[in-house]
Design brief:
The protein is α/β, with parallel strands linked by helices. It has two domains: 155 residues, Lyase, Ornithine Decarboxylase, Chain A, domain 1; 245 residues, Alanine racemase (TIM Barrel, Alpha-Beta Barrel). Helices cover 30% and strands 25% of the residues. The chain is built from twelve helices and 21 strands. Strands 4, 14, 15, 16, 17, 18, 19, 20 and 21 form a nine-stranded mixed beta sheet that branches. An eight-stranded parallel beta barrel has the order 5-6-7-8-9-11-12-13, surrounded by five helices. Helix 5 crosses helix 6 and helix 8 packs parallel to helix 9. The longest helix has 19 residues. The radius of gyration is 23 Å and the shape is globular. Bound molecules: pyridoxal-5'-phosphate. The site of pyridoxal-5'-phosphate has 15 residues, from helix 10. Its EC number is 4.1.1.20.
C-alpha cells in the first residue's frame, strides 16, 4: 500500500484527505506519513535481521522531531552533522549510544557536547580534526571513539553537487592517507579507534559503486589488522536513491545483499546512514494555486509554495511529480509551476500538463527529504507547517511560523 493514494479521486495521506489537511492547517504545508517512514526503515531492518547492524538515519534529510521520534521508537540510530542535530535527536528521545557524528567542520564546542552525551562514534574527516578531538576529549577526561571517513575514490555517478566519494571532494581523508592517520589516531591518548566509514554520494541508482567502495575499504581494514589496529565496525554511509520520476533505484535487498555477502565471516558491526531513502517518499508539499497567468510563450501557475520552501528544483534542477489533490475536467496545457519569490529560478516544476483553475490544491510529491530541512525564510516568508499523518489522525508537528517570529531576534539602531 502506498501511503499517498486516491480514494474517490481525492488524494489521501493514509486515511486523511489532503484537501481536509489543507483546510485545517492551511497551505503551503508539508505532510508526512508515519506508515511510509516505518515501512522504509523496516525494509532496511528486515534485510539486516540476524546481523550485528545499526541503521543510523541521516538527520539532515528531515530533522522534524516527530519524524526522528517515529524512527527512534523503531530502533533507528542517527547520523548527525552538527551540535544542533545532536540536540534535536536527544530532544526526540534518541539513545546517545546510537548516534554517529559526521561532518568536515566539527567545532570544539560540538565535540564537547557529543562527548558529554556519550555518542557511539565520531566520523573524523581530517588529521587536524583528530588532533582537536584528542585535545577536547583530554580536557573533559573522556575517550573519544573514532572512525575515519575514508574517501574510496569511486565515482557514484550521480549529480556533482551530491557526489562525495571522489578525490576532488572536500569530504573524508584520501585513501592513501588513511593508514598513517590510523597509526596516529591509535597513538593519541584520548582517542579509541573504533571503526571506518565512507559515504560516496546521494541519490545513487546503481549498487555497483557501493560494492566497489566496500572492496577498497576491506583492503584497508585487512592492512590495519596486520598492524594490530582492529576495527569494531564498518559504516557504509547512506546514498541509496529513490524514485522521483522514472528512476529505477535498487531494492534495499539488492543493495544490501552483495555488501553483506562481502562482509560475511568478518566480526564487524555494520552501520548504515540512509537519509533520503527513509524519508523522501514519505512526504509531500501541499500548495494552492494563487493565480493563473496563461501566455503565448509560456503559461504560469503561481502557487503559494516557493523555492524557499522547496529549493531542490532551483538548486539541483530536480524533478518532483506535481499532481492535483482533486483532479478537474477541462483543457490540459503545459504550466510552469512557480512560486511568489522574486527570482526567475523560483520554479517547482516546468511544462506540467495539467487542467488547472485558481484555488486548486496541488501535491508536490517525494518531498520528504532535503525539502523542509533545506527551506529558508527568503523574501520574509514564514516556513510552512508540518503535519504527520498516522492512520486516521493528522498531527500538527510544527506549526507555521509567524512573520513576527522572523524578525524577533533583530533590533533597530538606538535613537540618535
Ligand atoms: C548526507 C549524508 C548521508 C545521507 O545521504 P542520503 O543520500 O540522504 O542517504 C549519510 N552520511 C553522510 C556522511 C552524509 O553526509
Amino acid at each position: 500500500m502506498s501511503a499517498f493514494a486516491r480514494s474517490d479521486g481525492v488524494l489521501y495521506a493514509e486515511g486523511v484527505s489532503l484537501a481536509a489537511i489543507a483546510e485545517r492547517f492551511g497551505t503551503p504545508c508539508w505532510v508526512y506519513s508515519r506508515h511510509a517512514l516505518e515501512a522504509a526503515l523496516d525494509e532496511f531492518q528486515g534485510e539486516l535481521a540476524g546481523t550485528d547492524a545499526l541503521v543510523c538515519y541521516a538527520v539532515k534529510a528531515n530533522s522534524n522531531l516527530a519524524v526522528l521520534d517515529v524512527l527512534a521508537r523503531r530502533g533507528a540510530g542517527f547520523d548527525i552533522v552538527s551540535g544542533g542535530e545532536l540536540k534535536r535527536v536527544l530532544a526526540a528521545g534518541a539513545d546517545p549510544r546510537r548516534i554517529v557524528f559526521s561532518g568536515v567542520g566539527k567545532s570544539a564546542g560540538e565535540m564537547g557536547l557529543a562527548l558529554r552525551a556519550g555518542i557511539l562514534c565520531f566520523n573524523v574527516e581530517s588529521a587536524a580534526e583528530l588532533d582537536r578531538l584528542d585535545a577536547v576529549a583530554g580536557e573533559l577526561g573522556k575517550v573519544a571513539p573514532v572512525s575515519l571517513r575514508v574517501n574510496p575514490d569511486v565515482d557514484a555517478r550521480t549529480h556533482p553537487y551530491v557526489s562525495t566519494g571522489l578525490k576532488e571532494n572536500k569530504f573524508g581523508v584520501a585513501y592513501e592517507d588513511a593508514l598513517p592517520l590510523y597509526r596516529r589516531a591509535a597513538r593519541l591518548a584520548n582517542l579509541r579507534v573504533s571503526g571506518i566509514d565512507c559515504h560516496i554520494g546521494s541519490q545513487l541508482l546503481d549498487a555497483a559503486p557501493f560494492v566497489e567502495a566496500l572492496e577498497k575499504i576491506l583492503l584497508l581494514i585487512d592492512r590495519l589488522a596486520t598492524e594490530g589496529i582492529a576495527l569494531e565496525h564498518i559504516d557504509l554511509g547512506g546514498g541509496l536513491g529513490i524514485r522521483y520520476r522514472d528512476e529505477a533505484p535498487p531494492a534495499v535487498r539488492d543493495y544490501l545483499q552483495p555488501l553483506l555477502a562481502q562482509l560475511r565471516g568478518r566480526k564487524l558491526r555494520v552501520i548504515l546512514e540512509p537519509g533520503r531513502r527513509l524519508v523522501g517518499n514519505a512526504g509531500v508539499l501541499l500548495t494552492r494555486v494563487e493565480y493563473l497567468k496563461p501566455g503565448d510563450a509560456k503559461s504560469f501557475a503561481i502557487v503559494d509554495a516557493a523555492m524557499n520552501d522547496l529549493a531542490r528544483p532551483a538548486l539541483y534542477g530536480s524533478w518532483h511529480e506535481i499532481v492535483p489533490v482533486v483532479p478537474r475536467q477541462g483543457p490540459v496545457r503545459p504550466w510552469e509551476i512557480v512560486g511568489p519569490v522574486c527570482e526567475s529560478g523560483d520554479f517547482l516544476g516546468r511544462g506540467r500538463e495539467l487542467a488547472l483553475a485558481a484555488g486548486d490544491l496541488l501535491a508536490i510529491m517525494s518531498a520528504g527529504a532535503y525539502s523542509m530541512s533545506m527551506s529558508s525564510n527568503y523574501n520574509s516568508r514564514p516556513r510552512a507547517a508540518e503535519v504527520l499523518v498516522d492512520g486516521e489522525h493528522a498531527h500538527l508537528v510544527r506549526r507555521r511560523e509567524t512573520v513576527e517570529e522572523l524578525y524577533a531576534l533583530e533590533e533597530r539602531l538606538p535613537c540618535a
